[in-house]
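Quick check before the chapter quiz. The format below is the same one you will see on the exam, so make sure you can read both the input and the output lines.
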Amino acid sequence: MTTIYGLDGRRVGGLEDFWTVVGEAVHGTGGYFGRNLDSLHDCLRGGFGTPDDGDFAIEWRDHEAARRALGHPETVRYLEGVLTRCHPTNRERVADELARARAGRGPTLFRLPDGDLRGAGPGALRLR
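Here is the expected output.
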């Protein structure tokens, strides 16, 4: 029987909230299930509290609320931080992404975990 982990999109007011909500969906209050996209991807591959047989799904309820919270303004905030600490060879690319986000164009932070949740590991993502 498939184990369902429910993410409440109404609780996502920004990227830090997303990490908290996904951790609590899988492990309860204070739970961890990644704090960046690389660690989320690792967790989705198994061994971090999901069923050993890989039969699980993440149901992102009220995902439209999270989509708004993880939109271009939050993406700008995130990319400003990335720009201050990225490797010099990546600065031009990050600056271009930041300029697009400031103009309200390009991918948002919602698309990053959404894509990771859809593409990694045995679990499926269901947007509700």
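If your answer matched, good. The CA atoms of residues 36 and 111 lie 14 Å apart.
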